[in-house]
Amino acid sequence: MAATQLDRRETSRLVLTIVVIEFVSGYLQGFYEPLLPNFATELNVDAANLSLFNVLATAVGALFVPLFTRLGDINGYRKLLRLVITTVFVAALVIVAGTALGSWALVLVGRAFFGAVPVWLPLHIALVHAKTAGEQATKAVSAIVATVTIGTVFGTATSGPLYELFGRSLPLTTAIVPALVALAVALVWLVMPEYVSGANKYLDKLGFLLLAIVMFLAILGFVEVVEGGWDTAIGAALLIAAAAVGLVWFRYELRQEHPAIDVQLLLSRAVAPLYVGAICMGAVFFGFLSPIATYLAHAPERGFGFGLQATWQSAAQTAILAFTVAAAVLVPLVLRHLTPKVALVTGFAVGAVGFIEFALLPDSLPQLLVFIALIGLGIGTVSAAIPVLIPERVPQTQRGIATGLFNSSQTLGGALGGGLFLSLLKIGAVDAAATETVTKTGYTVVWFTCAGFLLLGLIAVAVFLVPARASAPRSSEAPFSKGVPT
Question: How far apart are CA 366 and CA 349, in angstroms?
């Protein structure tokens, strides 16, 4: 089905609608994290149970993202957006009810259905590409990606003050979320246009089930590694099981006429390096946030660190996000003057240089400022360019799920980075009974590992990425064949 292109006024209305909804998405993703200690105190939740708040949403998202983005390709992007945004609205109300009733179980039920949030962005991007084209689509997607980050910053920055403003009442504070999501519900039901790609109606249920099992096992395995270290038997067993089921799933999909995931298409050299890049970028961006927070807070008189208190530490991390947003906004201009390969290689290289600089030079304010700028600009360029490029390189009938797998790749990368970096920090650590349990050696290894991930993404793009070609819904070419299959 050919897309009906919108005129400039209609395009502006569509993009503005999506930008508002994605700001809400980012806001609620950043909103709850600062409040988790208050959940623990007021609902009498221990640290192990508290970790379920994020684990549940991530695990359920592993199932929701591939399935629901594919259903969007089949049944229409607006139809699925109405479903997933309304689901999050109800889930947010359930969390408010759980805090009011003092029920952690009810809070977790609501939080589980927040796994629908990562579905919003890929469906929005697919809709933009269906209704616009060329530089117009690039500008729109870049603005949308930047808006999510802005929303996350605002959510993280305002939840604590709102908690104080509302007299330390969790029910009143958490009621902010459904109030904002109600705006998104209204926009998706009353304003947003529809587009049905014309994808084959057959749904490979077993393929999606196997993929969900792979994602679920992998994420739980990495979470277990975060909790118990890389030598934990449970974590190793979960990751081995994920790899085994993944192999079964891959071989099964190759035999299907209408697979859940067209692995031959998505492993072609036109898009596969982008997913590798997404995993590498996710490992760095979502994995280094915790180590950088403790490093910035470490007292410099003990040999390293900056001794930043909470306010200045928040300012430093906000500055990184600000540079990320700036890079995302500039992506259309970058892609106008550089090829996608050169733009991505530049982004990965800038980020890698930032971590190498941070690892090698002595701690100083100029060093920190350079690090903030390089990391923000590098990661921002990569994180905004990849979701722009993926929909351009797959058939319209697969744009939703192809972009959804970008989100899933980032999530897997983040889980990998979180577990790996926690273990690497122990390198050079002294006895736990001593004053210091982590030394600068551990942090230096983490910074070099971050640079290594970014250089791996750079190599994947520089060596394997090829220009997009005209595409078809199905391919008989072997994986990693050149271009999108024709």
Answer: 20
Task: With beta carbons less than 8 A apart as the criterion, state whether 350 and 284 touch.
Answer: no
Higher pLDDT, 455 or 1: 455
List, as one string, the DSSP characters of 410-432: HHHHHHHHHHHHHHHTTTT---T
The owner of tokens 């650590």 is 429
Residue 374's alpha-carbon distances to 358, 451, 453, in angstroms, are: 10, 12, 15
- What span, in angstroms and rounded, lies between the C-alpha atoms of 113 and 127? 23
Taking the whole predicted model, whether its pTM rises above 0.70 is answered as yes
**Closest among 127, 67, 37, 2 to 408, alpha carbons compared:** 67
Q: What is the mean pLDDT of the chain?
A: 86
Which string of DSSP letters, residue by residue, matches 210-223? HHHHHHHHHHHHHH
Angle (CA) 276 208 181, round 5°: 80
| 114 alpha-carbon distance from chain centroid | 14
Percent of the chain at pLDDT > 70 equals 91
d(CA 24, CA 81): 14
CA–CA dist 191, 13 (Å, integer): 9
CB 375 within 8 Å of CB 323: yes
CB neighbours of residue 476 within 10 Å = 8
pLDDT in tens, 4-41: 556 677 778 888 999 999 999 999 998 998 898 899 98
Q: Which two tokens stand for residue 285?
A: 């961006």
Please check whether residue 447 is in contact with residue 422, taking contact to mean a CB–CB distance below 8 angstroms: no
For residue 338, the Cα-to-chain-centroid distance in whole angstroms is 25
- Answer positive or negative: Cα dihedral of 64, 242, 273, 321: positive
Phi, psi of 381 (to 5 degrees): -65, -45
